[in-house]
Specification:
The complex is a heterodimer of chains A (339) and B (123). With 339 residues, chain A is of the alpha/beta class. In chain A, 25% of the residues lie in helices and 27% in strands. In chain A, helix 4 links the parallel strand 12 and strand 13. Chain B has a single domain, classed as Orthogonal Bundle (Fumarate Reductase Iron-sulfur Protein, Chain B, domain 2). The chains are: A alpha/beta (339), B mainly alpha (123).
């Protein structure tokens, strides 16, 4: 067929889209701004709900790549233009290619938890993020807090940077609820004597086997779920984190000391998404994620023929949702190029 | 007869259900009109977590809003007087509810209602 597709962003979405497009017989160039492909998955220790290793997942996804796929790493796309019935794409380093279709797989960026200053990230050593915790798990090092102590209590704060208009993010990041449950279980597996608390507004256990994992967290690990959103945290003289929350189900303010506080940082649009969308003339929705042609029927197409989206650049998704979305995008591209 | 009934040892227990149909929903409508962000509350409790008044009294703006929404306005009478209007709740609310004005509007609506009740009584 000889049709050429450029996929921008080599995280799980870009890798899977490229692999699927190559299987369908298209020439594919996968562009990545970093030196190594894999995106956020590179740093993620284990995936919900099965605790599948992030490394194994990435290996399996990467194995699907055909040798015909050209992977252009260390290239930041700086030019993207629709010219008649094709696109020209160019990078900061002089790289340039023409394509019959473009797939944006630019992913997300993790919410910068420094912005929720009242929660103490970057101020108190024992306040970390969910991503920091994954790195700690992956390192295989002893599970200690930043003072070298095994925490007797660990707290998880849901919805950090999600569902919060004070940081201009109205959206739910979808994956943090179940990630908190997964990480709470992993903490209990490492520190069976520790008490673990999750502070939540709503528990959105919508996926297959998420509710089961939540139940396991209660039944097997005695993890405590407190319905209330943190107003602030402070540090006591011993370096413990003192959390302030309303126990809304009891209707009383509650104060609790934890040795380690984990902030479930949400997903924000990747900073590269908007400039690329602007180059193409795509309309962004107010939250910065790319708006597909139709949120029910045409989730991978955009208002510009030949421009497609896959993965979290069009909204928060789990890895499994991202992979399914990527394969679906490949079919949408094939449909477009064959017509 | 009355005396006998008393000695009999039984009394009628009042129904503790929220009688949504019998409750007064006008006050909530008036307040929602004066401060439409009332409708945005998701009962997360962040306001109550940071509230100084709530540390020493049973004041919880989250609960006040729920009582309003259910028409349980009788239990609201003294609630808003506990608020010191410091505005910390407004700083932390994830839905940008205008909490200070909400408290002021609740107080105002309750005061107006009381006045009109008094006017009716004196007639």
């Amino acid at each position: 067929m000889g049709k050429h597709v450029v996929v921008i962003g080599a995280g799980p979405a870009g890798l899977e889209t490229s692999a699927s497009l190559a299987k369908l017989g298209f020439h594919v160039t996968l562009v990545e701004k970093e030196d190594v492909s894999g995106g956020h998955l590179k740093k993620w220790h284990a995936l919900f709900p099965t605790l599948l290793s992030g490394k194994d997942a990435l290996e399996t996804i990467t194995k699907g790549l055909d040798s015909s796929i050209k992977i252009q790493t260390a290239t930041k796309v700086t030019g993207l233009e629709a010219v008649n019935d094709y696109f020209t794409i160019s990078g900061h380093n002089g790289w340039q290619e023409k394509a019959d279709a473009v797939v944006l797989t630019t992913g997300f960026q993790l919410f910068d938890s420094h912005r929720k200053e009242e929660y103490g990230y970057g101020i108190y050593e024992n306040v970390i993020t969910s991503a920091d915790l994954e790195e700690l798990f992956a390192s295989g090092k002893a599970f200690v807090n930043r003072h070298g102590n095994k925490p007797e209590r660990v707290g998880f704060v849901h919805c950090v940077g999600s569902r919060d208009e004070k940081v201009n993010n109205l959206h739910c990041s979808k994956v943090c609820c179940i990630t908190a449950v997964k990480q709470a279980i992993e903490v209990k597996q490492l520190l069976p004597d520790a008490e673990v608390f999750c502070f939540y507004m709503d528990l959105r256990m919508f996926g297959r086997h998420y509710e089961e994992l939540y139940k396991e967290a209660q039944e097997k690990y005695n993890i405590q779920f407190i319905r209330g959103r943190l107003s602030e945290s402070t540090e006591d003289r011993d370096g413990n984190i003192v959390v302030k929350v309303e126990d809304t189900l009891l209707g009383k303010p509650l104060r609790i000391k934890v040795g380690l506080l984990v902030l479930m940082a949400g997903m924000e649009p990747a900073p590269d998404t908007k400039p690329l969308a602007n180059m193409l003339g795509l309309k962004n929705v107010s939250d910065g994620f790319i708006q597909p042609l139709d949120e029910v029927l045409h989730t991978n197409s955009t208002e510009i023929p030949g421009v497609f989206v896959a993965g979290t650049c069009s909204g928060p998704k789990s890895v499994s949702d991202t992979l399914a979305d990527a394969r679906s995008a490949a079919l949408a591209v094939a449909d477009y190029l064959k017509s | 007869m009355e005396k006998k009934a008393k000695y009999f040892g039984y009394s009628i227990t009042r129904d503790r259900q929220i009688d949504y149909d019998a409750n007064n929903h006008d006050i909530c409508k008036i307040i929602a009109k004066a401060e439409p962000t009332l409708n945005l509350c998701i009962s997360c409790g962040t306001c109550a977590a940071t509230c100084t008044a709530g540390q020493f009294t049973d004041f919880s703006l989250r609960q006040v809003i729920l009582l309003l929404r259910r028409g349980e306005t009788k239990s609201l009478e003294n609630e808003v007087s506990k608020c010191m209007l410091c505005g910390k709740c407004q700083l932390v609310c994830p839905r940008n509810v205008s909490t200070r004005n909400l408290v002021i509007q609740i107080g105002k609506a309750l005061y107006d209602k009381k006045l009109s009740a008094e006017t009716v009584n004196t007639k």
